[in-house]
Specification:
- It is a single chain.
- By secondary structure, the protein is mainly β.
- The chain has 1 helix and 5 strands, in the order ββββαβ.
- Strands 4-3-2-1-5 form a 5-stranded antiparallel β-sheet.
- The radius of gyration is 14 Å and the shape is flat.
- The two termini are 19 Å apart.
């Protein structure tokens, strides 16, 4: 059965580039403030805009779902 569509809040994005043998992952996570996002690539961490984080070529997405209205 299909789940009903709900509104949610994006919490994180994982982006993958390259092949499965020698690829690279970059993670974007929300934190610190309402529109604060960080980019994690190996040992480098930088602040990015929400637009940049949500424009990533997503391999995985993490959301907090809003409660379904009745």
């Amino acid at each position: 059965a299909l789940l009903p569509l709900r509104q949610g809040l994006a919490l994180g994005v994982v982006e993958h580039s390259g092949s499965y043998r020698d690829g690279h992952y970059i993670a974007y996570t929300r934190g610190g403030g309402p529109n604060s996002w960080h980019r994690f690539s190996d040992s480098k961490v930088s602040e990015v805009t929400e637009e940049e984080a949500l424009a990533a070529q997503a391999f995985l997405l993490f959301f907090r779902c809003a409660a379904a209205s009745s």
